[in-house]
Design a protein that fits this description.
With 117 residues, this protein is of the alpha+beta class.
């Protein structure tokens, strides 16, 4: 899932752009992962159809790379099968941030909390 989201960020971010990957523990015993880019962003109409298999959302990357839109549908399926959620925040010409949550075990939460202190 992370690999696909990073690959998409690279595909839609021009050379010299920035991609940031972050993780933070959430109060509901989940972790939120975010992949943020300074790429071309998306329109509201595209965002509304991103995770739908019945609507074609493919478009070429910044260097003409092909895309099918299927990777995001597969990511959504995996995340939801693991009791998580995925969403995107984006603005045209300003970039996109894909975020998802997945549950984590208490031991993992303690390790994340300790590493922040």
């Amino acid at each position: 899932m992370i690999r696909n989201l990073i690959s998409n960020a690279e595909k839609f971010t021009p050379r010299g752009g920035k991609i940031t990957i972050a993780a933070k523990p959430m109060p509901d015993n989940s972790v939120e992962i975010s992949i943020k880019d300074t790429g071309i962003g998306m329109s509201r109409a595209l965002i509304d159809n991103l995770f739908r298999i019945d609507v074609q959302t493919n478009r070429k990357g910044t260097e003409g790379e092909p895309s099918t839109g299927l990777g995001l549908i597969i990511c959504k399926d995996f995340i939801e099968k693991n009791n998580g959620k995925i969403w995107v925040e984006s603005e045209e010409a300003k970039g996109s941030t894909f975020k998802f949550t997945i549950p984590i075990f208490n031991q993992q939460i303690n390790e994340i909390s300790k590493s922040k202190n």
